[in-house]
Design a protein that fits this description.
The chain has helices spanning 35-53, 63-73, 80-94, 108-116, 121-140, 172-180, 184-196, 200-204, 241-249, 271-279, 288-300, 305-312, 325-336, and strands at residues 8-11, 14-21, 24-29, 211-213, 220-224, 235-237, 259-260, 263-264. By secondary structure, it is mainly α. It has three domains: 8-53, no CATH class; 63-140; 172-336, hpI Integrase, Chain A (Orthogonal Bundle). The strands form three sheets. The chain has a three-stranded antiparallel β-sheet, covered by helices on one side. Strands 4-5-6 form a three-stranded antiparallel β-sheet, with no helix packed on it. It has a two-stranded antiparallel sheet with strand order 7-8. It is elongated and about 75 Å long. The N and C termini lie far apart (75 Å).
Length: 353
């Protein structure tokens, strides 16, 4: 077995660098499992650091490097999974480009391709916001070994114009067509969304530790904590009979309510979702439309606006995280109206405390 170059140490299956070069302490992974490839990476990093430290040259960072730094620095971000999806999509277009050469025109083909796939302007603008955020951090925060920014000035990204996509609630018949084409785990998650109105990431990140008992009621609710809520406002998730039966199927299996082989699911909008959507002839239906369907069905059942806002977690300035027993009972009664097989009753809901 060949002797490793000084400064390289293997941890698990990957070679790591532990070396001081021209006064710069370097501790990082090479990302390589083979010694020869790790040595090539180390030689490249030595040349880079010496060119900066000794000759005053500046490293031309690529967008791929900046994206990796962004993911590392923002591992606490609630929407990081969605950001990673966007960054993967733009990589073929700008991943290998030096940061200083990137401008709005660099993404012209990406925007054109996404529009041809039916992606709305709102989604594209969110994609551009993530790219812009990476470039702004490279210009404003990240520094090289000489204290210089990775990028002198971040380019401007004008808003992308286009029609806003309208909500697409689904009917019960469409729901049945969609669910029957899904694998069991995804059908359960979709049906849970239809009966709770939760967002994709709220469902994927739901843990059993978020379940809480309700004093005075023989039931439990789930909590969407501030760090997991899109608007950073904690709220409760009351379950009707359907949602509770789905959750109970997975009780005691994993720390997450919904999972695959004990691992957290990163998103519902995966290959299985898109395949089922196509098979059902519902290509225009998004995961978020399940939430729109929940809201529409509550309205059709006669649930008033204030209760719908509480159930959907819409922050209107009046919502409080301190729910009384009577308020929770009222919200549970509201979602029970969505259960199949029930007659739509005249509303005799409990009055708010």
């Amino acid at each position: 077995m060949a002797k490793a170059t000084p400064g390289l140490r293997k941890r698990g299956n990957t070679w790591h660098i532990e070396k001081t070069i021209a006064g710069v302490q370097l501790f990082e992974s090479t990302g390589e499992t083979e010694l020869e490839a790790a040595e090539c990476y180390l030689e490249m990093r030595i040349r880079e650091i010496r060119s900066v430290a000794v000759y005053g040259e500046r490293i031309d960072r690529t967008f791929e490097e900046a994206a990796a730094r962004y993911i590392e620095d923002c591992d606490h971000k609630r929407s990081l999974d969605r950001d990673i999806t966007t960054l993967k999509l733009v990589m073929p277009h700008i991943g290998g480009m030096p940061l200083r050469k990137i401008h709005f025109g660099s993404l012209k083909q990406y925007i054109k391709d996404r529009k041809s796939d039916g992606i709305a302007a709102g989604t594209l603008n969110r994609d551009m916001a993530i790219v812009r955020r990476v470039l702004n951090l490279a210009a404003e925060l990240w520094r090289d070994e000489q204290g210089r920014p990775w990028l002198d000035t971040a380019p401007l990204f004008p808003p992308i114009s286009g029609s806003k996509r309208k909500p697409r609630p689904i009917s019960v018949a469409e729901q049945d067509k969609l669910l029957k084409n899904m694998p069991a785990y995804l059908a359960d998650m979709a049906l849970f969304a239809l009966h709770t109105g939760l967002r994709d990431q709220e469902i994927c990140g739901m843990r059993w530790e978020h379940e809480a008992s309700v004093n005075g009621l023989a039931t439990t609710v789930f909590l969407i904590t501030e760090e997991r809520a899109k608007n950073a406002h904690e709220r409760i998730v009351p379950l009707n009979a359907v949602a509770r039966s789905i959750a109970d199927k997975y009780r005691g299996q994993c720390e997450y309510v919904f999972h695959r082989n004990g691992k957290r699911l990163s998103r519902m909008n995966n290959r299985a979702w898109r395949k089922a959507r196509k098979a059902a002839g519902l290509i225009d239906v998004r995961v978020h439309d399940l939430r729109h369907t929940f809201g529409r069905r509550l309205r059709a059942a006669g649930v008033d606006l204030e209760d719908r806002q509480d159930l959907l977690g819409h922050h209107n300035g009046n919502i409080t995280t301190h729910y009384s027993k009577v308020e929770i009972a009222r919200l549970i009664e509201c979602v029970e109206l969505l259960c199949e097989g029930r007659q739509r009753p005249e509303l005799t809901l409990l009055k708010r405390a």
